[in-house]
Design goal:
By secondary structure, the protein is α/β, with parallel strands linked by helices. The protein has one domain: Rossmann fold (3-Layer(aba) Sandwich). It is built from 13 helices and five strands. It has a five-stranded mixed beta sheet.
């Protein structure tokens, strides 16, 4: 979470969030009230402030997360290696498919995140996949409390609608266009040198990136069964953002 005087950026992992925070640091005129990477809003929620978030197609997000781990980086890769699953990171497409099948299983969620995988939250990990959880824990005021009361997908939809704080979404697929729209409209009052900020958005190199394992892959199909599993686990992101 990157909080300023009049707005808050909700920085979902592997969605271009490092670039956005750097852009705000460079061009925002407001004082930083709090900065803690990927932190939740919770009791800091202020309805007078403007909240925006970054999102990404869950398959692309998983590929980026896996590639990051193959490069020896990232908390998830460290967790899995510590638990004896370092062999999953072999930097191949087939290796990614094996890894993805593994992390999509609800019963390994404790290896991905302590709270997501907590036994007390077993119904949460059955209802939503890891990337959906990462989105919801930042997009909702009280994510764990709200999700704890959910027993069905309709409950998740209702809980999200009730506690969602997001006013604007930056999609990774239209990243530069969405950011330019954001700083020239909703955040215009807080951005110095609009032209310079737009130039930065369009020309500055991406940050915190890894070499993609699918960069030279001609066939990036998952296979019907694995694709179906991914769609079923990350159903809410597909539903909300038409992925």
């Amino acid at each position: 979470m990157h909080e300023f005087e009049s707005f808050v950026f909700l920085d979902v992992q592997k969605t271009g969030s490092t670039f956005v925070s750097h852009l705000l640091t460079e061009f925002c005129t407001e004082e930083v009230m709090k900065y803690k990477k990927h932190a939740r809003v919770e009791d800091r929620y202020d309805p007078k402030k403007f909240y925006f978030i970054t999102v990404r197609n869950p398959l692309d997000q998983y590929i980026s997360l896996y590639s990051h781990g193959c490069a020896g980086m990232g908390g998830l890769a460290r967790r899995l290696r510590k638990r004896g699953h370092g062999d999953l990171y072999d930097s191949t497409w087939e290796g990614f498919r094996v890894w993805l099948k593994f992390v999509l299983q609800p019963d390994v969620s404790h290896m991905l995140d302590d709270e997501y995988g907590d036994d007390a939250n077993d119904h949460i990990r059955e209802l939503i996949g890891f990337q959906t959880y990462r989105y919801l824990e930042l997009a909702m005021r009280t994510p764990l409390e709200t999700l704890a009361e959910c027993e069905t997908q309709d409950d998740v939809r209702a809980g999200y609608e009730k506690t969602n704080v997001v006013d604007f979404t930056v999609h990774h697929e239209t990243f530069a266009d969405d950011l330019e729209e954001l700083i020239t409209t909703k955040l215009r009052h807080a951005i110095r040198d609009i032209d310079g900020a737009i130039k930065h958005i369009r020309e500055a190199p991406k940050l915190n990136t890894s070499d993609r394992i699918d960069a030279f892959q001609t066939d990036t199909r998952l296979g019907r069964k694995l694709q179906t599993t991914l769609n079923e686990r990350e159903w809410l992101l597909h539903e909300l953002f038409e992925y």
